Amino acid sequence: MSTQASKLEALMDAQQRPAGATRVVAITSGKGGVGKSTLSANIAYVLARKGFKVGIMDADIGLANLDVMFNVRAEKNILHVLKAEATFEEIILPLEENLWLIPGESGDEILKFSDATIVSRFIDEAQMLENLDFLIIDTGAGIGDTIQMFLKAADDVVVVTIPDPAAITDAYAMVKVVSRIKNDILMIINQVKSAKEGLKIFDTIKKVALGNIGDHLELKLLGSVRSDPYVARSVKQRVLVCKELSNIAPAGDIEAIAKALGDKKEHKMLEGQKESGIGIFFKKLLGQF
């Protein structure tokens, strides 16, 4: 087992990628209780296991809980960096090989920083994250202004829902809001009985969205994740399904979703397309871009 210092060195001392190599993926939902954080954690783990360098940032404002899910203790978080009370190196928690947690702040104070000097220093410190291939953002649920700022700053937005009428309605409301800032939106249908059910729910949402929002919207199904009682147990036991229960159906479904994200990134690289990168992401988030 590597020490925390050596794992941080693995991030900072990796062969320098060009600026803008990090793809920022925000995972969100219209309502709580749809498994968004569980999916975020497992997708990040699978991407890391596939060899990508992955950071996962807890932006579930009001309920920052990824440290609990990964069974680690976060002494300080990103707000301490903004306040110059800690460095990025001090707050980042190595979780697995190629996987690091950036602890969030249970409140919206992070977005109140607009002083150019503070933001500039913060962006300079964030450069240590430029070696990441992916930054997965676990946002809060709903369509509040704070959440929208994270979604606007990200490269990809993934909306998660489940086969529940209220959740589906809220997911459509989220798609409608996101469509004002993004033309491309991805979806995951969680806790389905079958892939067929997931596709049916997605098709219903897409039909309504295209009819009311317009055909400029590119709404795509990233994947469906089948329901299994072991998933709920894994959350209570603070273990990752894709690590400890890799033989069950949901783990395979999440594997396929992570592969799709990895393939999408590599396809863009082959085409010479750049991601926005860590620096641009935080500048957008803090209102400096």
UniProtKB/TrEMBL annotation:
Claim: rRNA processing is one of the keywords in the record: no
InterPro entries on file: FlhG (IPR033875), MinD_FleN (IPR025501), P-loop_NTPase (IPR027417), ParA/MinD_ATPase (IPR050625), YlxH/NBP35 (IPR033756)
Keywords recorded for this protein, A-Z: ATP-binding, Nucleotide-binding
Keyword Nucleotide-binding among record annotations: yes
Pfam families tied to this protein: ParA
Gene3D superfamilies: P-loop containing nucleotide triphosphate hydrolases (3.40.50.300)
PANTHER family given in the database record: CELLULOSE BIOSYNTHESIS PROTEIN BCSQ-RELATED, SEPTUM SITE-DETERMINING PROTEIN MIND HOMOLOG, CHLOROPLASTIC-RELATED
Protein name per UniProt: Site-determining protein
Protein species of origin: Hydrogenimonas cancrithermarum
